[in-house]
Amino acid sequence: MKILVTGANGQLGSELRFLSKNKINFEWFFTDLQDLDLSDIDNLEKNISFIAPEIIINCAAYTNVDKAESEPSLANLINFKAVDKISKWSSSNNCKLIHVSTDYVFDGNSSIPLKENAITGPLNVYGLTKLKGEKSCLKNDPKSIIVRTSWVYSSFGKNFVKTMSFLMSQKNSLNIINDQIGSPTYARDLAEVIINIINYKDWIPGLYHYSNEGEVSWFDFAKSIKKHYGFKTNINGISTDEYPTPAKRPRYSLLDKSKIKRIFNIRVPHYEDSLQKCIKSLKNEK
Length: 286
Prior knowledge:
Structural class: alpha/beta
CATH architecture: 3-Layer(aba) Sandwich
Number of strands: 12
């Protein structure tokens, strides 16, 4: 079975590539900007047809949340228009599609974990374009699967864990936002979940939420990183208002994972356990 993975050099794509080495029953095609440019809308369907996959895992996205505010057209092109084309192709070619989305489709006004049917209301360009991508995906290909995730990190690419470990090794004190609540996601865990979905006895389309277990702020997450690395850096909690950014972030975007756990019989690790595994992997790379 041919599986096309877009965004192969990103965090999730890299983790899927790592895990694919033990999944030899599939024929994997890992593509990124150089191989399959999602912004080349006019040729996108033709380029996918050349590969002719039976499953597409769309990990590609414009993910620079702040920069998207000044590049809305490019973010819209990759997060919406490209998804529109991909989902039309998958529907027309009897291809299974898994599309990865984000907790940033929500407005952050909830106080309880967000289910898949919770009302959306993105606060920034990134979240808006990802929501548009979701809607076009579900409209064009009702048999597609969309997985929303949050606060992704990995031993690959740029992310909060790697940034914090670098800064903690350089600085005696850091100020970290303490009033944005969610849960981190180790990209390797999510990659394993996606492979489990592909291998599951039934293909059950729809929206799903996935992150690791636990409810934390960025401040709490930073403290956990400090603990597992053994740094001595002083971590100070600050409010969102004290650290203004071009794009607004939801204050609360904790995802309810009960649906994906129930339907696909998935066990979700606690973020502390997964963080420890990732940090061990990062330490082994040095």
